[in-house]
Amino acid sequence: MDLNRVAPELRPYVPRFRVPMESPLLRCLGYGVLLLLPGRTVPGVRFERRDDAGRGVRLFIPEVRKSGGALLWIHGGGLILGHPATDDRFCAEIARDLGIVVASVRYRLAPAHPYPAAIDDCHDAWTWLLRNASAFGIDPARI
Hints:
- By secondary structure, the protein is an alpha+beta fold.
- The protein is 27% helix and 15% strand.
- Strands 1-2-4-3 form a four-stranded mixed beta sheet.
- A hairpin with a 6-residue loop joins strand 1 (45-50) and strand 2.
- The mean pLDDT is 81.
């Protein structure tokens, strides 16, 4: 973190440690923990993992559709950390409550994959969703 961008009175409180996020071992351990978590199912929503969509997409398809719309969800983490599985329950609830398909994209993370790798992965997921919209009853103009 660049301390010059932090207000002078707050600088003593900013932690001065670095987490080596570029470590493949730490990333593997983190993803392994996510895989061990119990499924976060939401009644009324079907879950599908699609590996044919760029780096992968997690689909949440509600049993009751209220519109032909869809949402492409890009998980938080500033393109440097996180995993789409952390937002599974949230995406499933959005799908159920709004009655739309939610596609949560998996993207490559920096610094191992520098810019624009993550943006390219998100774009690939969006184009996959456009190409396959009719298969999921989605209106491409409402993504």
